[in-house]
Amino acid sequence: MQCPSKTLAPTALRHHTVSYYSASITYRPNPFVDLSSSESLTDKMALTAGDVEADIYYLSRSDIYKSVKPYTLRYKPPGSLPISNVIREKECTIIRNMRHHWDALRYDSCGFQVVELDTQMTFDDFSDVDKIDQVHRPEIEKCVKRTMQASSVQVLDYVIRRRHVSFPIATGEPYEWQQPASRAHIDFTFNAGVSTIRNAFNEKADAILAARWQFVKASGDWPLAVCDAASVDFDNDTLAGDVVERTKAFENTQVHFNPQQKWYYLKDQLPSELLMFKNADSESMSGVTTGRLVCGNRKAGDSCSFALGVPHASFCNPPAPKTETPRESIEFRMIVMW
Fold first, then answer.
1. At the top level of its lineage, which domain of life is listed (predicted)?
2. Containing domain of residue 194, as a range?
């Protein structure tokens, strides 16, 4: 399927979670297709079953960002200040069905993985805040701790996304639930992660920052695409941006399009499948490479503008029928410590 021609579009305000690892769980029944055969990764792989060509929005390589930092306000400012100066650029992107590449996609190099989650939650339970806090939160923490062989995992918060039937066409009214995030991004820069730890842990923050830590987030129709971090030129394809609220601000990482980037999604994701991906790592600044990523093409020991993470975005799945149930998912933000 061919994507429409490239166009520029204004950005839409949205709330997005902060983390270093992420996992996305879609809570609707899907037929599971076991496509476990592996293929070698090349720059130009032929499309195979479940691969799609779809539009992803990226930050434009506009000259404006040579002198002005990208920003988005989460409130309506007084006067004539624009809510955002982000220029989105739509690019037709090949997104691979990761079920074909289990043997080739390794967490240490790509920055994401899929984990089986034994959950007691039902679909209706996700409307119950108490059950999320008392049942699902401990399930997620236990699963991630075991998978990452960590000493501690702590959920910071979570967000539930329920796509409105009109999305991405705006209704003119605020959405009741968070909507899919369609622009490629990484949730935080390294400095923003440090600030989050200080705000969340107060007097315990120094001890956490002195050890190794990472952030993790747990999350058919508008599925989540993740980019193989080893295919990203972080020097040339990423740029820090500001997300500003009335009383605080934080940095995230905006992503430019590059045809060398390799994107994947989990076709027909089941509620028992936890998609985890890295947003940043405390050791990325020191050049340590064991069990984590190095910064683009830099050598170990070189400085790094951003803590390494996995670019990600939701996309409109072209093969999905119009009668498909709108996406409903939950995403947990968490910090993982060793």
1. Eukaryota
2. 8-337
Please tell me the pTM assigned to this model: 0.71
Residue 67 lies in a domain: yes
| 210 assigned to some structural domain | yes
Residue 2 lies in a domain: no
Give the total number of structural domains in the chain: 1
pLDDT digits (tens, 9 = 90+) for 296-320: 344 444 444 333 688 999 887 766 5
β-bridge mates for residue 9, sequence order: 88
238-244 and 152-162 strand pairing: unpaired
Residue 214 in tokens? 């990472």
Element (H, E) at 25: strand 21-26
Between 14 and 166, residue with greater pLDDT: 166
Euclidean distance between CA atoms 210 and 204, whole angstroms: 10
The pLDDT tens digits for 26-42 are 433 333 333 333 333 44
Is 258 part of any domain? yes
pLDDT at 174: 60
